[in-house]
Amino acid sequence: MSHSNHLQTNIGNPLSIAPMMERTDRHFRYLMRQITRRTLLYTEMITTAAIIHGDRHKLLDFSLEEKPLVLQLGGDHPQELAQCAKIGEDWGYDAVNLNVGCPSPRVQNGNFGACLMAQPELVATAVAKMQDAVSIPVTVKHRIGIDERDRYEDLAQFVQIVAEAGCRHFIVHARKAWLKGLSPKENRNIPPLRYQDVHRLKQEFPHLLIEINGGIITLEQIKEQLNYVDAVMIGRAAYDDPYLFATVDRDIYQQSATPPTRHQVVEAMLPYIDYWTKKGLKLHGISRHMLQLFAGQPGTKAWKRYISENAHLMDADSIVISNALAKVPS
Length: 330
Description:
Elements (H helix, E strand, L loop, with lengths): L3 H7 L4 E3 L8 H8 L7 E7 H6 L2 H5 L8 E6 L3 H14 L3 E6 L4 H5 L10 H14 L4 E6 L8 H13 L4 E5 L10 H4 L7 H10 L4 E5 L5 H7 L5 E4 L1 H5 L7 H4 L10 H17 L5 H4 L12 H11 L7 H8 L5
Parallel strand pairs: 1-8, 2-3, 3-4, 4-5, 5-6, 6-7, 7-8
Pfam family, one: Dus
Keywords: Flavoprotein, FMN, NADP, Nucleotide-binding, Oxidoreductase, RNA-binding, tRNA processing, tRNA-binding
Organism: Stanieria cyanosphaera (strain ATCC 29371 / PCC 7437)
């Protein structure tokens, strides 16, 4: 199978929102689509075991509005990863991504996530099998290193081996992970950022698509990074301040659309909220993702307080959100 078509699909997507556990579910993604149509979105990491043995509709369903959308898989068994990549493609995902960056102990016990950086040949085998199973792009998200394997040369060797298996798109979290001694939360903050390693990777592998992740929180920083790499992935900043993305369709993608106001974003969510609450979803399942929509704005405290006090009530629906919105100056 020619991998040149793989490359085309991802070019032209300079910006993405990182897969985040307990965060990037379908309701958060739908919210983000009211703010940016173009930014590439990801699922939470889903393990191969969950997909093979679990409730696929619950795990994999999404609204068409969420596209373009990437399925992120966690696992270390090449055949199972290939099977799940195929399921993802059949489900309608635009690409599938292998997690080689998550440092949580639960993930290590399953021998996947960041500890796979110590086994580049296994990752390469998995990527090759996944690519044989699907025609959508297969991408890898990883760290710059783990534990004592954290020289630039180790990183370059990992990328070289996995690229030889046909992977063309690498998303590099510019921090190493300590598998022992740091919690996942500490691993997001404590190891220092080494952007220069990711920039060097792009220089030395110009034919690969290199995307940078880690600590980037403003539009200015995104634009600055795009001078050195092909794409930027934003993690927690997207959750802490979703409206950060309001102008990216215009400023990054050169679209002529007028950015929506925060009030318009909330109003666009109301029919969606009623659709889901009528189906039995608790309002909190959607409203929790909306709490930070007015981050840094007058009225944000009143907005958050009203939702927090009312979202869990029986039969809470879009009226709660409308009432909360009335407390925010437009």
